[in-house]
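Please study the protein below:
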Amino acid sequence: MKFRNLLILGTAISMLVLPSCHKKDEDEVSLPFLDGTLSFSVPAYVLPGESFTLVPSGASNPTTGNVGYVWYSSWLTARDTTKRETASGDGAWNVTMPLVIGQYTITGYAYATDYTPISSTKDVCVVDPTVDVSLTGTGYQIDSAAFKDPRDGATYYLATTGGNVWMQNNLYYPELGVSYFYSPAVDPIFGRLYTWDEAMKACPDGWHLPSEAEFAALAGVEDDIPAMKGQTIPDVAGSLMANAYFLGDRLWAFWPDVTITNRTKFSAIPIGYAVDRDGSQTYNGQKGYAVFWTSDDDGDEAIYRYIYVDKNSLFSSKGDKKSFRASVRCVKD
């Protein structure tokens, strides 16, 4: 099975949020909605106390073109009006996230006189990248020697397994690859996703992208390792998976055919994969797939190894070198 084939407020606000004490007149006419769809961008994951600016767009007043903007959040009791209907400005909101990790919501409203407001709500998770805080149960060997990348100071925990020294956590070198759901806050937690071309350059000096043979050795194949190139290795996925939780939510769902032992200390977590399209990324396979590039290639494609949540096997497939994105683990030279 190939992933490439899987790609496979003013007054109006008060009227909206406050209950009416009066019976609606039978001849009362409902107010029309504003034109368009209110939109704003916010990272899916942010750091405690992180600040950023939300800029609304997409809402329009059919009569005058003028709209106002009001913001609510689940951790603040007061609303924040950033633009009155007839005032100038873009309605941008400068927001600082709470210090407590967890999930929160942000809602923006666009309003105008004689129109029903339109709104948009986004979920935002505040995370702490410190090991064993937001992400727990990784099995990282934090008491043993760790490697600090001299390029950016990132810390990688190490395990000697399959005859090699492996990084236990996914690479998150910031000069290459992309953040999980455009959220740099989780780079140290989930690692970044790299094209194969990027992956071949991403490991620090003294480390390299593992080959198919090194993945086979990791999985415990003792006989005829070269013959396992591109082949499914059965009965090993549980030994590679971390019984990890993110913000209290189990990442690998329980499945009776897979017993998670993390015997190899590989500590795989299912963050899925991404595909580049028209200058942006589509993210897929979260909580279902853990996908890792190998250094072996075949023309315009390269081989990756992957684990699927309900199968106790280490699978092999191919992805486009320039558009398919997977996790990277580095092996010591």
